[in-house]
Amino acid sequence: MVRKKVLMKGNEAIGEAAIRAGCQAFFGYPITPQSELPEYLARRMPEVDMIFLQAESELAAISMVYGAAGAGARVMTSSSSPGISLKQEGISMLAGADLPAVIVNIMRGGPGIGGIQPSQADYFQATRGGGHGDYRHLVLAPASIQELADLTWEAFALADQYRNPVLILGDGMLGQMMEPVLLPEEPPPLVDKPWATTGAKDREHNEIYTLHMGMEDLEKHNQRLAKKWEQIAREQVRYDKFMLDDAEIVIVAFGIASRVARRAIRMAREVGIKAGLLRPISLWPFPTAAIAEVAKQARAFLVVEMNLGQMIEDVRLATGGLVPVELFSKITIVPNPKEILQSLCSLARRTGCKIDEAAIKEESA
Amino acid sequence: MKTVFSRPQALTNKPLHYCPGCGHGIIHRLVAEVIDELGIREKTIGTCPVGCAVVANEYFNVDMQQAAHGRSPAVATGIKRVLPDRVVFTYQGDGDLASIGMTEVVHAAARGELITTIFVNNAIYGMTGGQMAPTSLLGQFTTTTPYGRKKELQGSPIRVAEMLATLEGAVYIARMSVHNATHVMRTKRAIKRAFETQLEGKGYSLVEILSTCPTNWGLSPVEATKWLADNMIPYYPLGEIKVAAAVEGIN
After folding, report:
1. What is the pLDDT of residues B134-151, one digit of tens each?
2. Mean per-residue pLDDT of chain B
3. Is A207–B58 a contact, with Cβ atoms under 8 angstroms apart?
4. Which of A7, A156, A280, B37 has the most C-beta neighbours closer than 10 Å?
5. Are A125 and A114 in contact (CB under 8 A)?
6. pLDDT, tens digit (0-9, with 9 covering 90-100), for A9-33
């Protein structure tokens, strides 16, 4: 059978990819701009004999995820920014208890209730462990509907592989827009979960817990978890390059902002600016080494993000002061490529990068 | 030689950390005896609260999950929905269930989740050192009501069993007490009926159990049982609060 692309909305593509990845249960709570995802699964999960349950709150939804994950199921929840704040209690619990689960954040603007426009303002919350305690989890940032589907599938595999929650960080634009997508067909292989609480038949009883009262015990527990997160950091760095080989100015952007950045880079090339893109796909672990390598050749960096400047801190840490790193920031407005081009021109002039001023005059004429 | 008394299989041999005169030890044993008698130890999964019973995962010899504070009914929902043929119970105190976790228990009951809740009401926060609970009595002295609980400041204590009994999905709701042997035996019967309600797929079941906290009440274990009888039972009437028609045939 030939696999065919289908035209799907981002939120629905996540839902269908989750089903095809063997998601056994979804627990969620309505919030714009991700509600199409629970709505889609409310319709589809019963068709494949799987569980959909609308929880009474985000706190309850993530706790149901915890219970089901602890019982050995492949399980998912989704929300948008204010709801993800509420889920942090449970995400900290999942991380502390080594439980695999997939969490989707289709970001909107904040702080507080904010609005329903797309945003990337939860970068810090996502990558720094928004809940309490010292923990890490993978943060995957898709930039297309195809990648939403692919990374959803992978998120289930990675959650099981590392026994750790995985966060998919999209934004309202990705959630709402439609693109052709090739959906996955086979789920990732099931892994044995001898630790799961399924009933203590012919074995000792299993316990899933996060309390470690002894000082030494808690220290040891944290150090063991740290080893796992160091392994993830070594093995799961993901990024994409676009016109980067000869780039003098490097844009770093993720998600929907990176799509606009590509357009701006093409426009910049037309006026002689050697611009390129490094797009982090894993926001944690961050592609620090790749950026450090690029910083040896580049003359300047422009970080394009839909927040007040959050990822730029990681880019500055990676570049270690070798080159200027500037910010192009919109909070809840998807950037206009022309505005990014203006920033690129300004940066090129100030850092002595190649630029064809005649071509620019011609363009504006 | 004939064995007339032994540890239930559903308890581990770990010594309990509870204070002298605390009701948790009795209630743990009752739950374990019921699990043994129903022959469901190998298919039972329990959740621990945050509170004194937070380490119940070490005491019950069944699969256990520790939930975040108050979230036990949601965690239990997650377990039961993906493992519908298992027996799932939550073990919760009054702070965990009636304060921070009130939303979760109300909605689990409203959905008629096929889980059983063991709700230990000792009218105080034990683990954190004797603060006011939603079930602390009017006039009761706690570390956060040093002048006594006042209706105009902290409101009146919540009667959880009666409140949940109004929900369609809750089919078996009882309030029992463990302050003396007679009531301990009655409590066990209620726990058994609650588990049987789940086993027969009838709906949500809960047994509220009045219990003692001598340490934080500032009383001796003997005085504490008397305080419970004299003060708690008049406000929290004992008995089967709700036995839905569907449950009447059970037991």
Report:
1. 999 999 999 999 999 999
2. 97
3. yes
4. A280
5. no
6. 999 999 999 999 999 999 999 999 9
A209 contacts chain B (CB < 8 A): yes
Given this model, what pLDDT does residue A1 score? Answer: 60
pLDDT tens digit string along B82-104? 999 999 999 999 999 999 999 99
Does any CB of chain B come closer than 8 Å to the CB of residue A60?
A: yes
Residue B90 lies in a domain: yes
Homologous superfamily (CATH) of A6-192+207-235 is Thiamin diphosphate (ThDP)-binding fold, Pyr/PP domains (3.40.50.970)
pTM of the entire predicted model: 0.97
ipTM: 0.97
Element (H, E) at A251: strand A249-252
Q: How do residues A205-240 score in pLDDT, each as one tens digit? A: 999 999 999 889 999 999 999 999 999 999 999 999
Per-residue pLDDT of B226-247, as tens digits, reads 999 999 999 999 999 999 998 9
Q: Tell me, yes or no, whether B212 lies in a domain.
A: yes
Q: By the 8 A CB rule, do B158 and B134 touch?
A: yes
Q: What average pLDDT is seen over chain A?
A: 97
3-class DSSP string for B221-248 = HHHHHHHHHHHHHHHCCCEEEEECHHHC
Return the half-sphere exposure (C-beta side, CA atoms, 13 A cut-off) of residue A239: 22
What is the number of domains present in chain B? Answer: 1
Q: Is A179 helix (H, G, I), strand (E, B) or coil?
A: strand
B156 lies in some domain: yes
Contact B65 A197 (CB under 8 A): yes
Q: Does A360 contact chain B (CB < 8 Å)? A: no
Nearest CA among A49, A137, A48, A135 for reference residue A100: A137
Domain range summary for chain A, segments of one domain joined by + = 6-192+207-235, 240-364
A240-364 CATH, one of 3.40.50.300, 1.20.1260.10, 3.10.20.440, 3.40.50.920: 3.40.50.920
Residue B5 maps to a domain: no
Torsion B99-B156-B20-B180 (CA) sign = negative
In chain B, residues 232-251 whose CB comes closer than 8 Å to chain A: none
Say whether pLDDT at A49 is over 70: yes
Domain with B210 in it: 24-246
E-assigned strand segments in B178-218:
204-210
CATH number, domain containing residue B28:
3.40.50.970
Nearest to B63 among A68, A200, A202 (CB): A200
What's residue B251's pLDDT?
62
